[in-house]
Amino acid sequence: MNVLKPRMPVPDFTVPVAGGGTWALSDQSPENFTMLVFYRGLHCPVCATYMKELQRMKQDFADRGVIVLGASSDTEERAQQAKDEWKLPDLDIAYGLSVEDAQALGLHRSAGRGKTSIGIEEPAEFSEPGLFLVRPDQTLYWSNISTMPFARPHFREITGAIDFAVANDYPARGELV
């Protein structure tokens, strides 16, 4: 598996977006960062809570010059269902993240194990959570990759970290191989 290091280029990828159109990392031109929030899919109750919090804070990120994308390996139908049922009207919710793109980003993959606690069938395979802050030059600033649905970074802490990083021109850390 690939491990992206800070200050290195993030592989470009293009994904379709629920509601129509596509989203490509290389097409983004944020003032400060693009924030990629990879979630497990419609079947994940923790993801629902996490993405609802992101929806509530989307403007906080926009005010900081941050473009936000939520993405999963779900199908179009499941992504649209998540967008509707989780009430995510202001978020771009991408779907169909390929195995190759997930691996290039260093995301972990899991095999489906039946229905979750909310009664929704897991897909045959799917990507586990990850969060990336990408600089406008498409290099990695910060990442958090998980093998589990729980213990994700809190968005309120991320906004504070962005404020500090921008105000102090704080460099990306963890770049040594």
CATH C-level label: Alpha Beta
Order of helices and strands: EEEHEHEHEEEEH
Nearest-angstrom radius of gyration?
A: 15 Å
CATH architecture: 3-Layer(aba) Sandwich
Q: What is the CATH homology-level superfamily?
A: Glutaredoxin
Count of discrete alpha- or pi-helical segments spanning 4 or more residues: 4
- Calculate the mean pLDDT score and round it: 96
End-to-end distance, in Å?
Answer: 15 Å
**What fraction, in percent, of the residue positions are helical?**
25-40%
Structural domain count? 1
Short characterization:
The protein has 177 residues and is of the alpha/beta class.
Key structural traits:
single chain; 177 residues; alpha/beta; Glutaredoxin; five-stranded mixed β-sheet; 4 helices
Report on the structure:
The protein has 177 residues and is an alpha/beta fold. The protein has a single domain (14-167), classed as Glutaredoxin (3-Layer(aba) Sandwich), CATH 3.40.30.10. The chain has four helices and nine strands; from the N terminus they run E-E-E-H-E-H-E-H-E-E-E-E-H. The strands form three sheets. A five-stranded mixed sheet has the order 5-4-3-8-9. A hairpin with a 5-residue loop joins strand 1 (14-16) and strand 2. It is globular.
